[in-house]
Amino acid sequence: MTTDLVSSPALLVLPRLRVQNANAISSPMTWGFPSITAFTGLMTALARRLGQDAGIAFFRVGVICHGFEPQVTRGGYTRAFHLTRNPVLQDGSTGGIVEEGRVHLDITLVFEVTLSSALLGEAERVQLAARIGDLVAGMRIAGGSVMPALPGALRRPQRAQLVLVSDNPADRRKDFRRLSRHWLPGYALVSRDDLLAARLAELQKTVAEATLLDAWLDLSRLNYRATRSEGIDPKTGESITTVEWASDARSGWTVPIPVGFAPLSNVYPAGEVAGARDPGVPFCFVESVYSIGQWISPHRLNDVNDLLWAPTRDPDTGLYRCINAFRPTVLPLTHID
Question: In this predicted model, what pLDDT tens digit does every residue of 210-228 receive, in sequence order?
Answer without folding.
Answer: 999 999 999 888 888 888 8
